[in-house]
Specification:
By secondary structure, the chain is α/β, with parallel strands linked by helices. The protein has two domains: 191 residues, Rossmann fold (3-Layer(aba) Sandwich), CATH 3.40.50; 275 residues, Rhodopsin 7-helix transmembrane proteins (Rhopdopsin 7-helix transmembrane proteins, Up-down Bundle), CATH 1.20.1070. It contains 19 helices and 17 strands. The chain has an eight-stranded mixed sheet, sandwiched between helices. Strands 14, 15, 16 and 17 form a four-stranded mixed sheet that branches. Helix 15 runs antiparallel to helix 18 and helix 18 packs antiparallel against helix 19. The chain is rod-shaped, with a radius of gyration of 44 Å.
Length: 652
């Protein structure tokens, strides 16, 4: 009763048959869902029971709208539990969908969303085909969809996979799950206007799954007709004269055969019921306005239970068949059944695989992933590097304390007294602060910013004390011995110490303004991801840093102050390089310290900006420079004094 799948034409045909003798007692049809939806809404008004062989629209399950409608083909919504089971079997939880903008496809898709939500699965991406489809397919590719449920007619499928081929959206990592009622060679007969060959379509969709109805009983049980499904199929071939060649509509033909049997059994049971009831009423007394026999036909149809070509046929309260589904896989140009989904199984696993799924279904034995596995990783400092640098800094601090003790204990002896022990103490105090900065690197969440601020303060103050004191001593040498002065000046320690502390104060003021006006906070800096395309793993790296919006200006100001100090110190070192007076015995060593600090400071600033995103390398290099510069400085100043003191002690 399907006329080009046109509902209007089919309704006209229904009215024609109803009002043309003889009286009809049941309707078989239509084959298209739109036709069944139109006719089944009105056929019950003439007390007619209607059965459709192949209509699959989920809307037809609405018993309120379609009061006496049955079908032998399960609605597309019933396919979704089988799809969910496939997802579970292969560990897929992120699913994309692409469906045509028709109720036939949108209703099952939205039903799938609901079931996925209950199964803790995610709709990764959902695209709807309206007019063009190139944008939708491109969106799937751009969002790296891997597992896609496709719901569309065959002609649209050709266009979808042609577009997928053109943009390279295919391969072993892409798995499509399509509708199971496509014809066998749906991809071969492509129009010339498509722009793709069948071979190209094959490349694009090879490996797809489909979940469809079981058209032939896989157990080949004897049907009610007395023949096995294989026998019935052979008879169908013989009638068509194809002799086992592919026959268009074979599935629909055989399920139509089952529909006739279903209607016949319901009618036959009704005839028997009328006879058992007694009286003169027979099936021939059926009329469109008398509901009694129509109701009996409806009740007997609901009780239908027999074995047909497709297997056991029974109906649920919605008039839908309770049936199993077959899972097919298309590979290398061939489609085969690989599993059966039986909703009636009283087990957690409702799919019976007909093959060993891993080696057969997946090349190389690897199940495709539903998405790239994203592994977030916060880059942290290596404990080994931290402990190593801390040990070196600790040794340096011990040496500093030793020099400090020497400088205090022997401050009145000639070799120490004439080298300004008070300024030496400031230098050693600054060195201790610089060594302490090595330990200020690891902290827990809330204290990270505090540690960052403490490191900035200690580094700046330590540098100002350590090298400011050295430069102050060099300045005194410069004032006393250079040709630029007309008379020698004596500069007291108090004035030099005041100068050093003034320099420290200026730096502290800059830092204070920074922390008040532009406070630092803990921010995450995202680094380039590391992608393993073979394993589908993406490591998204990030580091935690203390930053403020305008910190570049304050950092630049601090660097400028230290830079001026270094330039001034360099000038003084050059001017006093030839001074060699026993009373000021470390003037030349101070010059070497300045050269050392200048070189290492420039290197340190370069590393600070060049390696700021490599936590371990940045920490390792900057701490090595700090330890090296600080250690060399204090050793150049104090080792000669210690050695001369030891020689003098041994002499006496």
């Amino acid at each position: 009763m399907t006329y080009d799948c046109d509902p209007g034409t089919s309704l006209d045909a229904l009215y024609h048959h109803i009002y043309t003798p003889p009286t009809k007692i049941m309707v078989i049809g239509g084959s298209c869902s739109p036709v069944s939806e139109a006719t089944a809404q009105v056929s019950h008004r003439w007390n007619l029971v209607q059965i459709s062989p192949v209509s699959v629209s989920p809307a037809l399950s609405n018993r309120f709208r379609f009061k006496r409608f049955f079908r032998l083909n399960s609605p597309d919504n019933d396919v979704n539990p089988a799809r969910i089971e496939i997802f579970k079997q292969f560990g897929w939880t992120k699913i994309a969908t692409l469906h045509q903008a028709l109720e036939l496809f949108s209703e099952p898709t939205y039903n799938l969303f609901s079931i996925m939500k209950n199964a803790s699965m995610t709709v990764f991406r959902s695209e709807i085909i309206t007019n063009g489809l190139s944008h939708q397919v491109q969106q799937l590719k751009d969002n790296e969809a891997r597992i896609i449920v496709g719901s569309f007619f065959e002609d649209i499928a050709q266009k979808v996979f042609c577009e997928a081929y053109k943009i390279g959206f295919y391969g072993p990592k892409i798995v499509w799950i399509l509708i199971g009622w496509y014809s066998v060679d749906w991809w071969r007969n492509v129009p010339s206007t498509l722009g793709c060959t069948p071979e190209q379509l094959l490349v694009a969709f090879d490996g797809y799954f489909s979940v469809g109805r079981v058209w032939f009983n896989p157990k080949n049980d004897l049907a009610i007709s007395g023949y096995t499904p294989t026998d019935i199929q052979s008879m169908y071939y013989n009638i068509t004269g194809k002799k086992h060649e592919p026959v268009y509509g074979l599935r629909q033909g055989l399920i139509g055969y089952d529909s006739v049997w279903t209607a016949t059994l319901a009618i036959n049971k009704t005839i028997g019921d009328l006879e058992e009831r007694g009286g003169s009423q027979t099936i021939d007394d059926f009329t469109y306005w008398d509901d009694s026999i129509g109701q009996m036909l409806f009740d007997n149809m609901k009780k239908t239970d027999f074995y047909a070509t497709k297997g056991r046929i029974t109906f649920n309260e919605k008039g839908d068949p309770i049936t199993i589904f077959q899972i097919e896989r298309f590979q290398n140009g061939k489609k085969e059944v690989v599993g059966l989904y039986d909703p009636n199984l009283q087990t957690d696993i409702k799919i019976q695989w007909l093959t060993n799924t891993t080696p057969i279904l997946w090349k190389g034995g690897r199940i495709p992933k539903d998405s790239v596995t994203v592994i977030p990783r916060t880059e942290t400092l290596s404990p080994a590097i931290y402990i190593s640098m801390s040990c070196l800094a600790g040794l340096g601090a011990i040496v500093t304390c030793g020099f400090l003790a020497f400088n205090i204990v022997f401050r009145k002896i000639k070799i120490v007294k004439r080298s300004s022990p008070n300024l030496n103490n400031l230098t050693l105090a600054g060195c201790l602060l610089l060594f302490c900065t090595v330990f200020l690197e690891t902290a827990e969440d809330q204290s990270v910013v505090t540690v960052c601020k403490s490191k900035i303060v200690l580094l700046t103050v330590g540098f100002s004390l350590a090298f400011g004191a050295l430069f102050a001593k060099t300045w005194r040498v410069y004032l006393i011995f250079t040709h630029g002065t007309k008379q020698r000046k004596v500069v007291k320690d108090f004035k030099l110490i005041s100068t050093v502390f003034s320099l420290v104060a200026v730096n502290v003021v800059v830092i204070g303004i920074w922390f008040v006006v532009d406070p630092q906070s803990l921010v995450l800096v995202h680094l380039p991801s590391q992608v393993n395309h073979e394993e589908d793993i993406e490591i998204k790296r990030k580091i935690e840093k203390c930053e403020s919006p305008n910190q570049i200006y304050f950092v630049t100001s601090l660097l400028a102050l230290q830079g001026i100090l270094l330039l001034f110190g360099t000038f003084l070192a050059i001017q006093t390089r030839k001074v060699n007076v026993e009373g000021l015995n470390d003037s030349r060593m101070i010059g070497l310290c300045i050269y050392n600090v200048v070189v290492l400071s420039f290197l340190g600033v370069t590393i600070e900006f060049a390696l700021k995103h490599d936590v371990n390398l940045h920490y390792g290099m900057t701490t090595v420079i700090t330890i090296l510069a600080t250690t060399i400085t204090q050793c150049l100043i104090f080792v000669p004094k210690v050695r001369r003191h030891n020689r003098a002690s041994n002499y006496f």
